[in-house]
Amino acid sequence: MIAHLIKRSGHLPMEEAIVSALGMIKGAYAFSILTEDQMFVGLDPRGLRPLSIGRLGDAYVVASETCAFDLIGATYEREVRPGGELIIIDEDGFKAKQFTTPMQRTLCSMEYVYFSRPDSDLNGKNVHANRKTMGKQLAIEAPVEADVVTGGVPDSSISAAIGFSEAAGIPYELGLIKNRYVGRTFIQPSQELREQGGVKMKLSPVRGIVDGKRVVMVDDSIVRGTTSRRIVRLLKEAGATEVHVRIASPPIQNPCYYGIDTSNKGELIAANNSIEEMREIIGADSLSFLSTEGLETSIVADRDQKQFGVCQACFTGNYPTEIYPDTVIPAYKE
């Protein structure tokens, strides 16, 4: 779309053509555009996605996650700023300009909950540390008597599970092992086989840890509920006397229109069931979620809230940009 809009701008210089194109786009984007002798880097005005700049010798590098810089030996410089910053890198060096009016950032909260790697930094703070804080807040909001705490799907839930364990004073144990050598399960010929392969083949309960124990299974989120149901079943088959599920994010009740594949409310278990109904569906002895206030506090508490905020649209339905999910585009007429 951006390339098409740049083309339509006619014979404007590339920088002006890009600015013109971005002025017509609403939503979430983080991009780099390469020409023969320049690189243009930009972020949507709300900064819904992360994007960072690093240095590798005399060169600049761009990545959506800061952990990529560590892998290639680059040093982190700074994030691309929300509010419509366009960065131009060429033989003359590095310059930045605004292509729209600055706005308060609303970084996708699911970047903290699930998407980003724990060894990345978002807005100057480590993702693993943020997830631990979410787990601690969850333990305060939804305490439970239990013998062990374990993560749901390694590795995305481990940080929150450790935080929950520390705050609750319940030991953290590796109750589930991830099989790192299993094949890709999405190519199985039926949904039933995909679901079975997705959990039973990829995860194994550690019977010696969970047998005869009351287990708290901490996970990052529940989308459709299929994985949670099968994990609870695995733990109980391994001898867990109780399985209490704690989710380090609020219930996902609304579609995301910013590039995440949850565009249909019918796919979201929390959009169509109460928490008690969800508990029955997944077979847990209890089920609780982190509140929207608890999530925002965990992420934003030590930042200038005038400059930084998070998008919680999938939890609250309050989208930071205009969306048109039900718009019907009329047919073209001569």
UniProtKB/TrEMBL annotation:
Coiled coil regions in record: none
Annotated PROSITE patterns: GATASE_TYPE_2
Pathway this chain belongs to: Purine metabolism; IMP biosynthesis via de novo pathway; N(1)-(5-phospho-D-ribosyl)glycinamide from 5-phospho-alpha-D-ribose 1-diphosphate: step 1/2
Molecular function in Gene Ontology: amidophosphoribosyltransferase activity
InterPro entries assigned to the protein according to its UniProt record, in alphabetical order: GATase_2_dom (IPR017932), Ntn_hydrolases_N (IPR029055), PRTase-like (IPR029057), PRTase_dom (IPR000836), PurF (IPR005854)
Family: In the C-terminal section; belongs to the purine/pyrimidine phosphoribosyltransferase family.
PANTHER family recorded: AMIDOPHOSPHORIBOSYLTRANSFERASE
Protein name according to UniProt: Amidophosphoribosyltransferase
